[in-house]
Structure formats: structure tokens, C-alpha cells
Amino acid sequence: MNSNDGFRHHPSIILEQLLGALFTLAILFAVIYGTTSYAKYIFLLMVAAVVISYVWWKRTLIYFKDDELVIERNLVSKMKKTIPYSKIASINIERKVLNRIFGTSAIKININSGVNALNAEATLVFSEDLAVKIKSELSSKVFNNTDCIEDDVVKPLINFTFKDILIHSIFGMPTGQSILALIFLMWTIISIFLQGSGITIPLILFILVEIFPSLGGVIKFYNFKMYRTGDTIHVQHGMLQTYKSSFKISRINAVCIKQPLLARLLHKSLIELEVVGLSDSDGKKPTICLLANNNLIPVVMSEVLPEFIYDHFSLKQPAAARYPILFEYSIAVIISVLIISIIGYASMSYFDDSAISSYVLYVFLIMAVLTVFSLFICAYYSYSIMEFDMGNDLFTFVNGVLDREMSIVSYDRVQIIEIRASHIARHFDLAKCKISLLSSVGERNISSGYFYEADLSKISDRILERLCDGEYDYKFSGA
Asked: TM segments (predicted)?
């Protein structure tokens, strides 16, 4: 793979970079052509954009050295970007629609840094065969494996059928989004029965909130496969835009086992990872296990992520935590009832008919009662669900009233620890802990419930112990 002459991007990258701008300028040119003398300047601007992009492509060279990747560009100013292989966190291959048309693939290289966590450190576009070859050789240098295993040879731990992918796309949504979709669906049904003219808006909103995301999930996770070779995890999926990624187990910052409310009713869970620079195109954490039966999750963890398994001795929130939680939700109840009352009063005064005003009054009274009831139910679950647990190398937070999430984090990944306590919580020696760590979407905060401050302080104490005893893994911090 070493070449003194260097590699260039595939020429199709010129069109890929200019497609949006050229399309806009072409429409503008077509609209004003023949009506104004500015049309020729639009055409010259299009030509200039193509020339500049061509020069950018021609003057950019990529070198694969023995221990580093070098990207050089010599335009008005000279640019040289050097990426040591030892710093690479993940290597991904993506194929969008344009890539399929031109027979190319985009190699996305990410390093374990919060500076470019949202964007790849380097995106290299080559012909499909060359991209596969380069990724294979890079994998051999970075992950100590060739990353060249045929799909029919690899046997995934779980075979996800189209039905499984469809279930994941529908029931794996956040609960808030599902509730919003249900409201729009009920609005649509009521409009149909009342034979009203207002069916269009709720129907469009339901399609935007529920149907399109579900279809997008099916297209995104189509042909989902995940397997582990040595200390490297491989993930691939996609229908229109294929996605292949490889990353070392040591680059994982946290493991998140999630259960949205609807999935919990089906006794299913999914697993997401926090790996710096490995966010999906929609900015979400990478998924390594779609919604699967809860009894399969321990199997996936033991086979794929045994490094994140330890003996749990979970702590529930102490009884005194009920008081600050109840206070917080009481404030939410008061604010919610005030808002509903104001809207209800304004709605009643809008109608002159007393019968309709009474009907509106009953509707808003029911809404207020249901809101109060729901908030106090949430307060109860907020108290009973939150857990905290510490192991020798890992610690765990369990959060979520509607969408349950268990976050297993390595001490060596923690960037900032913040322990806060309100006036009421301090009275009972309670506090909340917020952990900041580098994640696939830049920086992620994980918060705990209310626990004794002395127990939460043990996290920072344990990190200091690992530093003093030499247990701390500096590779985890991206050093």
C-alpha cells in the first residue's frame, strides 16, 4: 500500500462536493436565463466552482506510511495532516447513492479525540476494490487483523430477519416520539369519524413522526450484521447507503443497554456503544444489537463484550430520595396545571354557547387530572428505577422513567465528575452525580439518581486509586 507518488481521491469526489451548489446555481441560471445579463455571471460562477474543485482534487495526495497516514494539499497555502495508526479509533466504509453510481466507497477514519468526535478525521474516496484493499491493510496495522472475512463465512451471533428489523424500527423509537405519533393518529381518526376537513394536518404529522422514521430505520438497518474477530468488532448494515465499521474493543467508552417503553412491553432490549467518532450519519450512537429478547442480551454481552461484564451489587436510591424527587415533580405538577388552566380558560371564552364551553371545561379538567396522575406515576418510577453500582474497573448507572437505559462505563473513560445537591437533597446528605465522557456524538453526560454523596464520591476516589496504583489505562483517554 505504500506509494512514493501517493494516492488521489476518485475523481467522482469533485461532483460529490459540488452537487448541491451546482444544482442550485443551475436552477438559478435556468430561471434568469434570457431575462437578465446576470445569467452569464452565474454560468461563470459554476465553471469557476468546477475548476477550483478540480484543482483541489489534483493537488491533494494521500500517503500510507508504515506507521502513519499523511494527507497533503498544496494550494494557496500548504496543508499536511498526519494521523498515526496508533491513534485511530475506528475505520468505516460508507457507500451512498452516488458511490454506488460511480462504483466507489468512502473510507472514514476516526481518532479518539473530542475535537472531531462529530466528524471523521479523514474521509477518503476510492474505487470500491481499492477502498476494500486499503481498509483491509489499514485494519491489519491498526487492529492486527486483515478485516477481509467474507460475509458467507462469518456467522453472526444473532440473525436479524426483516421482521426483526421492522420491529426494531417501530418499537425502538424514543417513547416521547411514539406518544406524539399516537396523539396525531388519534387526532386523524377523530377527524375521520367527525367527517371534518382537518384530517390533512394530523395525517401529515403522523407520517412525519412515525412512518418516515420507521421506513428510515428499515432502510438503515437492512441486512444488519455484527461479529467480533479477536479484539475487533465489525458492524455492517444498510440498503441504499451501506455502512461498514471496525473498531477495537479498547476504544469503547461505554456500553448502553436500552429499553424504550414499547420495547419493554415486548421484553426486548437493544445495545448501543459510545465510541468516539463512530456516530451514525443521523448523529446517533452506533447500534451493535437491534431489539432482541432480554434473555439474548447476556449472551451478546458475554460473547461480544465480555470486558464489560462484572459482578453487580446495585444500590437502589435510599428512602430519603423520595423527598427531593417528590418536590421536583410537585413543581412540574403546579406548572402543568397552571398552563392547562390558562389554555382552558382562553378556550372557554372563545365559545359563546354555554354547552360547548362546559364540554371544553370537562375536556381540560380531564387533561389536568391525567397530567397530575402521570407526573406522580413518573415520580414513583423515578424513585424505584434509578440504580448505581461500582466494580473494580467499571461502574454502572441505571436511568430512565419511560426509556430505561443501563450505562456501563470504564473509570478510565471519565473526563469530568460533577456532584450536585439541591437544598433539600443536602438536608438528607444526598446528591446527584453527572459524568462527562467522550462519546460518538462529541461529549455525553450521564447522570445518576439521588444517592448518598459519600457513595458517589467513591467514583472519583477509585479513579485516583487507579492512577496512583498504575492500573489506569492511558490508552483509554486517547493518550
From this structure: 12-32, 38-57, 165-193, 199-219, 326-347, 359-383
Is the pTM higher than 0.85? The answer reads no
Tell me the residue type at 260. Answer: P
The answer to whether 408 touches 255, Cβ cutoff 8 Å, is yes
Would you say 169 and 221 are in contact if contact means Cβ atoms under 8 Å apart? yes
Same fold, 12-142 and 386-477: yes
Nearest to 449 by CA among 427, 462, 431: 431
CATH class of 386-477: mainly beta
DSSP assigned state of 250: G
Splitting the chain (479 residues) into consecutive groups of 10 residues, what average pLDDT does each group show? Answer: 74 83 72 64 79 88 88 83 84 86 88 59 88 86 62 71 93 90 84 70 89 92 89 87 83 90 92 74 75 93 92 89 92 90 77 68 84 89 91 91 90 87 90 80 79 91 84 54
CA terminus-to-terminus distance, the chain = 27
Burial 24-56 (b: 16+ CB within 10 A, else e): ebeeebeeeeeeeeebeebeeebeebeeebeee
- Supply 187's cell numbers: 387526532
Annotate 243-265 with b (16+ C-beta within 10 A) or e (fewer): bbbbbbbebbbbbbbbbbbbbbe
Q: Could you give the C-alpha distances from 174 to 178, 180, 214, 292, 380, in angstroms and in order?
A: 7, 10, 12, 16, 20
Q: Which residues of 417-427 are buried (b: 16+ CB within 10 A; e: fewer)?
A: eeeebeebbee
| Cβ atoms of 225 and 237 closer than 8 Å | yes
The amino acid sitting at 358 is S
- Return the domain boundaries, the chain: 12-142, 162-308, 320-383, 386-477
> Which amino acid, 224?
F
CA-wise closest residue to 74 among 86, 57, 87, 96? 57
Is it true that domain 12-142 has CATH number 2.60.40?
Answer: no
Residue-wise pLDDT tens digits, 359-379: 777 878 888 888 899 888 989
